[in-house]
Amino acid sequence: MSEDEEVELIRRRKLAELQKSLIEEQRKAQIRQQLEARKQAVLKAILTSEARSRLTNIKMVKPEIAESLEDQLIQLAQTGRIPTPITDGQLKEILRRIQSLKRDIRIRRI
Hints:
Blueprint: H1 3-46, H2 49-61, H3 63-79, H4 88-101
Helix pairs in contact: 1-3, 2-3, 2-4
């Protein structure tokens, strides 16, 4: 096998690997989109429009808190532990409870 043939073979293998990884990433992205669409459909069913608007605002400012809150709301609604639809006032109360559970850690220099 000549050096040119080896280089071509390596190039083809690398191209095949890249194509395979691209297809896998596209598949994962599609699955994530489907899961997000289902999640949004459930949230639309269990939240009033005002509460959804507030949750969207929270998501823009603190996405990690919003993600956790969405998961908790869905779980509570599916188990029947919270009445639906959840109003903006109820969502505010849930947020207050979550915030009161968090401890503020402050470092003071002496």
